[in-house]
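Long-time lurker, first post. I've been practising inverse folding by hand and with some scripts of my own, and I keep getting stuck on stretches where the structure tokens seem ambiguous. Below is the full token string for one chain I'm working on. Before anyone asks, I'm not after the true native sequence, just a reasonable design that respects the backbone. If someone could post their per-position residues I'd love to compare against what I wrote down in my notebook.
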């Protein structure tokens, strides 16, 4: 009998089942609450979504900003209308995927280029068509929330 009780206690701890004595009992309500936890990989840290997101400035650029005849990006591919690329600051590696959030909209983009926009305290320089998915171009610079994927 003792091993069964121990096993049940372990399940309650891992799953996070708790019982709270109510201050006022509402009809038909339960005092049992279940919270599911994931066991993190060694060395990793679980953070709430709000803490994983960071914020930074984002601007835009297009073909008119090209400094070479083929409009090649840092990843060696030419800039092409409709791709999911953006220039990222040196805090990111080429090919790294980032989700940007802005006023209830979110897009996932790939770091495909680099640039000197960091001197203006900007983390991202989005391709023109990707910036338009978040805000009108005339806005110029916006503050986005972001997280690495």
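-- Answer (accepted) --
I ran through it position by position. Result:
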């Amino acid at each position: 009998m003792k091993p069964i009780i121990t096993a049940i206690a372990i399940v309650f701890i891992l799953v996070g089942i708790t019982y709270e004595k109510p201050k006022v009992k509402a009809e038909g309500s339960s005092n049992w609450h279940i919270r599911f936890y994931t066991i993190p990989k060694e060395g990793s840290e679980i953070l709430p979504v709000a803490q994983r997101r960071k914020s930074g400035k984002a601007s835009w650029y297009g073909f008119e900003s090209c400094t070479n005849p083929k409009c090649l990006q840092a990843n060696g591919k030419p800039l092409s209308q409709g791709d999911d690329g953006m220039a990222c600051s040196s805090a990111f590696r080429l090919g790294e995927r980032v989700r940007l959030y802005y006023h209830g909209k979110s897009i996932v983009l790939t770091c495909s280029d680099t640039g000197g926009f960091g001197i203006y305290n900007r983390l991202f320089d989005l391709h023109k068509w990707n910036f338009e998915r978040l805000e009108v171009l005339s806005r110029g610079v916006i503050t986005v929330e972001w997280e690495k994927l």
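A couple of notes from the structure itself: The two ends are 47 Å apart (CA to CA). Residues 2-34 form one domain. Happy to go over any region you disagree with.
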